[in-house]
């Protein structure tokens, strides 16, 4: 009986020792978000420790490579002069930038404790407000044709979502969900920022602008006018007829000019060779020479 009681007391003693003489850390948030240019604090709370002056270190882990943030009681690295350590071991970043997004590890070592070391890993993501998006809107479109409006920006983090507006009225992502836009044939992609019209209608005429937004804020481009014109078959035929008449007149003019010798189709080149013409007085054949010789000989 005494042996059992003694074993229980011993186990209780060791249990209390392990709890008392051990470094135990905790944090209020392991996934921290911060807006760019704002302050953010990552908590590293020491719940249990016996050593009076524990060694505290913070490390930044980016792309799998660790680097010191707080070492030998001072801030170092790219957070120097814009971060500080707050009691007991919290890390306060005064002016967060997008380059601060990384994993951070708080490490506490206490040589006098039975469990002399503990660490906590915290993820920090810095949100960046979108820049003004670049928008592409066609100036004029023929009714019944297809067209595409584009919107894009590359600064925001997390990635921006896009929304289109016509005459300052928000377009529903699915036109079939709205009575006002039910007959529209557009397809909107909130992730890529495209607004595609399969068949443009006259009612689609208006000023269009796009807004990019994420958790850090939003930005929009200037409105641009898109006009939709009816397809005029009569005007198209007139243009074709005018082209045919112009072609006939040009051909007739060339023929008249050629007839009156205003244009020559033959060009003399250095390779042209003209057989020289000789005077028959200077040209005596062998037979004629022989005859004359015979006549003078008879005389």
Automatic annotation (TrEMBL):
<comment type="similarity">
    <text>Belongs to the immunoglobulin superfamily.</text>
</comment>
<dbReference type="InterPro" id="IPR003599">
    <property type="entry name" value="Ig_sub"/>
</dbReference>
<feature type="signal peptide">
    <location>
        <begin position="1"/>
        <end position="22"/>
    </location>
</feature>
<keyword id="KW-0965">Cell junction</keyword>
<keyword id="KW-1003">Cell membrane</keyword>
<dbReference type="InterPro" id="IPR003598">
    <property type="entry name" value="Ig_sub2"/>
</dbReference>
<keyword id="KW-0472">Membrane</keyword>
<dbReference type="InterPro" id="IPR007110">
    <property type="entry name" value="Ig-like_dom"/>
</dbReference>
<dbReference type="Pfam" id="PF07686">
    <property type="entry name" value="V-set"/>
</dbReference>
<dbReference type="GO" id="GO:0042803">
    <property type="term" value="F:protein homodimerization activity"/>
</dbReference>
<dbReference type="InterPro" id="IPR036179">
    <property type="entry name" value="Ig-like_dom_sf"/>
</dbReference>
<dbReference type="GO" id="GO:0005923">
    <property type="term" value="C:bicellular tight junction"/>
</dbReference>
<dbReference type="GO" id="GO:0005886">
    <property type="term" value="C:plasma membrane"/>
</dbReference>
<dbReference type="GO" id="GO:0005178">
    <property type="term" value="F:integrin binding"/>
</dbReference>
<dbReference type="GO" id="GO:0044291">
    <property type="term" value="C:cell-cell contact zone"/>
</dbReference>
<dbReference type="GO" id="GO:0046982">
    <property type="term" value="F:protein heterodimerization activity"/>
</dbReference>
<keyword id="KW-1133">Transmembrane helix</keyword>
<dbReference type="InterPro" id="IPR013106">
    <property type="entry name" value="Ig_V-set"/>
</dbReference>
<protein>
    <recommendedName>
        <fullName>Ig-like domain-containing protein</fullName>
    </recommendedName>
</protein>
<keyword id="KW-1015">Disulfide bond</keyword>
<feature type="domain" description="Ig-like">
    <location>
        <begin position="130"/>
        <end position="226"/>
    </location>
</feature>
<keyword id="KW-0732">Signal</keyword>
<dbReference type="Pfam" id="PF13927">
    <property type="entry name" value="Ig_3"/>
</dbReference>
<dbReference type="GO" id="GO:0098632">
    <property type="term" value="F:cell-cell adhesion mediator activity"/>
</dbReference>
<dbReference type="InterPro" id="IPR013783">
    <property type="entry name" value="Ig-like_fold"/>
</dbReference>
<dbReference type="InterPro" id="IPR042974">
    <property type="entry name" value="JAM-C"/>
</dbReference>
<feature type="domain" description="Ig-like">
    <location>
        <begin position="38"/>
        <end position="123"/>
    </location>
</feature>
<keyword id="KW-0796">Tight junction</keyword>
<keyword id="KW-0812">Transmembrane</keyword>
<dbReference type="GO" id="GO:0016477">
    <property type="term" value="P:cell migration"/>
</dbReference>
<dbReference type="GO" id="GO:0098636">
    <property type="term" value="C:protein complex involved in cell adhesion"/>
</dbReference>
<keyword id="KW-0393">Immunoglobulin domain</keyword>
<feature type="transmembrane region" description="Helical">
    <location>
        <begin position="236"/>
        <end position="257"/>
    </location>
</feature>
